[in-house]
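Hey, I was hoping to borrow your eyes for a little while. I'm sending you its amino acid sequence along with the backbone structure tokens. Take your time with it, there's no hurry, and the full record follows here.
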Amino acid sequence: MTWNDKELFKKAMDDVKPLKDPAKAVFLQHKSARTFRRTEDIAVADNFLITALHDAIPLDLPLCYKRDGIQQGVLDKLRGGRYPIEATLNLTRAPVETCRRDLFAFMQRLSRESVRTVLIIHGKGRNNDSHANIVRSFVARWLAQFDQVQAFCSAQTFHGGGGACYVALKKSAIARDENRERLARRGR
């Protein structure tokens, strides 16, 4: 600090008084509601998930989806619950629009991380027209709309059975590069 900087600092701090009891001082952080709103509005505007459901999936039909090019062994291993679950989303008893928004935000967050397998708990009703089965049907349709979803299927009973589903996601670019390097070293 130069002499001028010290004088300016002393002049700026001239009217500042020390706290009487520094242990009782409370520091508040201001959170801008505007920023939160703006990002929420963007997330709602970018949400491409369908809002109309034509037919609910019957309860006796387990959820099962596999994108083209995915081996049957991957789906079988997923169905058996043999992949470690890295994240979970619970949608039980939530309105459909809330489920839509939460699932979209969850998948957007996962696309930035290197998560491969998730468990989505949607609930299971007693009849085909129950709210839980409507959410279940929407979740199945919504998951198929995401490019990063490779496969999904109903979960094992210890993870929720027909009221939950396992979802296998694509590897992130970082994970793909690490895998290539590991395999290249092994081949030498």
